[in-house]
Structures are given as C-alpha cells and as structure tokens.
Amino acid sequence: PVKTRSGKLLGYKTKAVGTVKFDDDSAKIVYFHLKFRYHRQTQQIVLGPQYLLYKKTSNMMFNPSNLFKSKVKFTLIPYHNRNKQYVTTIVIPPQLNSEIFVSGSHSKNNLHIQIIWNRDVGREIEIIIGGMHKGEMSVFPLIKLKAPDNGKLMIPDRIIKLIPFKKFDKIVFSLIRRNEMILTNIYNLGKTYFTSQSINNTIINVQ
Fold first, then answer.
1. N or C: which terminal CB in the chain sees fewer CB atoms within 10 Å?
2. Is the overall model pTM greater than 0.85, yes or no?
3. Which residues lie across from 3 on neighbouring strands?
4. Residues 10-66: pLDDT tens digits?
5. By the 8 A CB rule, do 152 and 112 touch?
6. For residue 172, how many other CB atoms are within 10 A of its CB?
7. Whole-Å CA distances, 62 to 23, 58, 175
8. Would you call 194 helix, strand, or coil by DSSP?
C-alpha cells in the first residue's frame, strides 16, 4: 500500500508479471501516475506499471463501445514461465451515459445538482467529484460517493458544501460502474485482482 505521511491510503504499488493479451491483442506496459493533494500542494507519484490496449493504427487507448456488456478473453504469459499461459474471461459492465441537471448557484447558497444515468439495477455505482483548474486538462479528485445503480441521485447539500468551487474553473462528475474478480491460482502470483469498468465523465462550469 501507498500512504501519505499522515497514513491516508492513496493506492497500491503495481508490478508487471508477464505478457498480457486481451482477445489475443497484446497490451503495452505504461506507468501509472497518481496525482494527489497534500498540505495544500499538488504532488505526483508513480505507482508502477499498468497494461493498456491501444488501437493498432494509433497511440490512442483502445476503447470500442461494442465491448460494453460483453466478454473479453484475458491471457497472461508469466515472465518466470514462458511455456505456460493463464486464460480467463473478463465481463465488461454495461455502458454508462449520464446527464447533470444544475439549478441555483453556489454563490447564492442555493445550488442543487442531480445526476441521471441509465440504470442497471442490482449494482452499486461509484461517483467521483473532481475539479479542473483553468487551462488544465487534468482532474483533481475531491469527493468519492457510492450509490445504488438506480439511475438517479440528488447530491446532498452537505456534500455540495464540501466542494471548493472557488479553487476550480470546472467541476467533473465521474460515474464508474465496475465488475470485480479475485483469483488465487495463477502460477504462484498470490491474489490477482481483475476489474473492468465503464466510466462516464460530465463537466460543469463553476458559477
């Protein structure tokens, strides 16, 4: 685990364990940079390598919409035993589409925010509220919420009051729907954690 000096959990170190393929297409290894705020300063650390699948004709990350609610074959060929391979199936969650309805103004202390999305009953959805500084594309995460995947959420007033609107030019609402799987029998690698996600980002201007 990676923590701040005060003990707050930021994430976990990662490592490359072999060659990874998705539906027989090889993934590239890139390094995962985590940006966080500590003592009013933005800091960045490298958690380690991650596997990403890119389009064959460009350097854009491969993200075809027809993969949603489908199954992807995952293949791992361990570095320590190239003669073996592990194959399993990863189920991709349904695609997320959302709209944000805003009324009032935070400057007048009467701001109301409602999120509407295509529901998938029986799941739980994660909502990350983040901020964007003027002239920057990166998003700084501020608040994490969890809610039933029922298609509608009115952001509580107590949460809205926690958003530092004056520090940011735009506020971003990221909805995350995920499938998770933990396996323990992959060639002495210990517990192996798989997650597939559908993410939808909506940006609103600060007023």
1. N
2. no
3. 9
4. 888 888 889 999 888 899 999 988 877 777 677 788 889 988 876 554 444 445 445
5. no
6. 19
7. 12, 9, 20
8. strand
